[in-house]
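Data availability (excerpt). All sequences and predicted token strings are deposited with the supplementary files. A representative entry, Large ribosomal subunit protein uL4, is shown inline so that the format can be inspected without opening the archive.
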Amino acid sequence: MKCPVTTLENKKAGEIDLDETIFGLQPRRDILSRIVNWQLAKRRAGTHKVKTRGEVKGSTRKLFRQKGTGNARMGSARTTQRRGGGTVFGPVVRDHSHNLTKKVRKLGLKTALSAKVAEGKLIIVEDVAMKEPKTGDLAKKFAALGWSSVLIIDGAAVDGSFAQAVRNIPLVDVLPQQGANVYDILRRDTLVLTKGAVEALEARLK
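Structure token line:
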């Protein structure tokens, strides 16, 4: 699969051959949904907590005798039916993450990359190296290229000047290739890969 290569100056820089087993798969919404749910579940802190009947402050004394008062039977002031009592089946501190096999995770990343290719929203650039970290200059280049909501994936490490320049541009994310993930790919409109990122991703996903 041939794909044109461009530069940040919006000039042609040849072509690159993309592996169809990675960038040419049929989009599968079920796989993408599973991966996104898995990623978001891992991010959850799980620190929400309410007090149960055994944790609420209060006496354990029986409030009044069992029979003869005309009231309903009541054994404790901490029961869930009374004001100030505990909560039944409330949230407790726990881990929300769940397991997902490596094959499914790898297939999810391939599917996300293929979906961007199918939508025509995958762009390959030669590199993103900059001599000086100038945010204004970089924002003008992005405007000329038509990039408004974009995820940029570089090779093993992101160029320091580029990372510093792009930091204050809204709706633009930058990741090294080892940080490439389905959620970040899908949450931005355009996916930009450097040639180094393509080589690293193909080696990682084959």
